[in-house]
Amino acid sequence: MRALIQRVSKASVIVDDVVQGKIDQGLLILLGVEDADEKQDLEWLCRKISALRIFSDDEGLMNQSVMDIGGDLLVVSQFTLHAAIKKGNRPSFIRAAKPVKAKPMYEKFVKYLSVIAQRPVETGVFGADMKVSLINDGPVTIWMDSKQKE
Predict the structure, then answer these.
(1) φ, ψ for residue 48 (rounded to 5)?
(2) Does residue 126 carry a catalytic annotation?
(3) What is the per-residue pLDDT across 132-141, written as a single tens digit (0 to 9) for each?
(4) Is the pLDDT of residue 68 over 90?
(5) Which of 55, 71, 75, 128 is least surrounded by CB atoms within 10 angstroms?
(6) Active site includes 40?
């Protein structure tokens, strides 16, 4: 399971000209699911994201988590995070899970993140053509992969 986490001042996701999810200060999480992902992958990722200290404290140091600041969360599914570009110029998405597996994992991720972070989680629409807008604060962008816990 892969996530691209962005610290934002604001973010939103629109589908068919309708706002599906919208947040103020917090985290925009782009989430990709692969076939090998299991429950422990999403649990590890949710715990890491909710405790990630990337918000400034009173001294300007990145020392607070989204939970510490009472920030918002927006999760958007993005299978392209599993693009393989080793050969040629056209990305291969063979590692990305098919919707029959990816959608339930995405939904479980959102639910578990809400429990761990103790706050509601805004979302996009799984599988839809989405327009994502954000104001990246910092900018701070962090890549996480549950298979490469670095």
Answers:
(1) -65, -45
(2) no
(3) 999 999 999 9
(4) yes
(5) 128
(6) no
